[in-house]
């Protein structure tokens, strides 16, 4: 019995530093959540039926989402985060449809990643992410407008 307790304590002691490190938020604690939200925004736009005019705007939004996704993954990896971790995406509020939900998520993602940055090397990365998100939001707004005006 004493051997089992000693072995269990040794295992816990060996794992404790790694477990403690996994819980540290790092420089950019919102990046993993932003990745989950981007995945969901991407899915919402890809799985919305629409006409050709809306699809063109949706394609632009998806291209920008993928650009932001790549940049956020780089930043998360640099922070030592496990990018396979997938927090539950945000989906709050009333929305008219997929495009409105996607726009809401993009606005939240921008708020999450556009925080003040002290590291000059990381400011450029953050600014590229925000740029992609801004372009994705504009394209999504255009897609919403086209959808609401029957593609005109």
Structural description of this entry:
This protein is mostly helical. The chain has one domain (27-148). The protein is built from five helices and no strands. The chain has helices at 2-23, 31-46, 52-78, 98-113, 120-148. α4 packs antiparallel against α5 (120-148). The protein starts with a helix and ends with a helix. The relative contact order is 0.18. Residues 2-25 have low confidence and may be disordered.
Question: What attributes characterize this protein structure?
Answer:
single chain; 152 residues; mainly alpha
The structural domain count equals: 1
Report how far apart the termini are: 77 Å
Query: What structural class results from the helix and strand content?
Result: mainly alpha
% residues in beta strands: under 5%
Mean pLDDT: 77
Distinct helical segment count: 5
Helix/strand order: HHHHH
Name the helicity range.
over 70%
Query: Count of DSSP E strands?
Result: 0
What general outline do the C-alpha atoms trace?
Answer: elongated
Largest sheet: none
The stretches of 5 or more residues where confidence is low (pLDDT under 50) are: 2-25
Oligomer: single chain
Rg from Cα: 20 Å
What is this structure, in a nutshell?
The chain is an all-alpha fold. The chain is 72% helix and 0% strand.
List the topology elements.
Blueprint: H1 2-23, H2 31-46, H3 52-78, H4 98-113, H5 120-148
Helix pairs in contact: 2-3, 2-4, 3-5, 4-5
């Amino acid at each position: 019995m004493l051997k089992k307790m000693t072995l269990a304590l040794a295992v816990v002691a060996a794992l404790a530093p790694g477990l403690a490190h996994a819980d540290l938020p790092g420089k950019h604690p919102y990046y993993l959540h932003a990745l989950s939200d981007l995945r969901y925004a991407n899915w919402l736009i890809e799985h919305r039926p629409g006409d050709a005019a809306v699809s063109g705007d949706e394609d632009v939004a998806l291209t920008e989402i993928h650009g932001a996704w790549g940049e956020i993954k780089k930043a998360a990896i640099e922070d030592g985060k496990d990018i396979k971790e997938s927090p539950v995406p945000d989906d709050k509020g009333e929305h008219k449809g997929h495009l409105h939900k996607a726009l809401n998520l993009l606005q939240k993602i921008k708020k999450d990643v556009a925080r003040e940055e002290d590291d000059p090397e990381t400011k450029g990365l953050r600014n590229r992410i925000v740029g992609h998100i801004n372009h994705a939001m504009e394209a999504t707004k255009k897609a919403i407008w086209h959808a609401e005006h029957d593609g005109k």
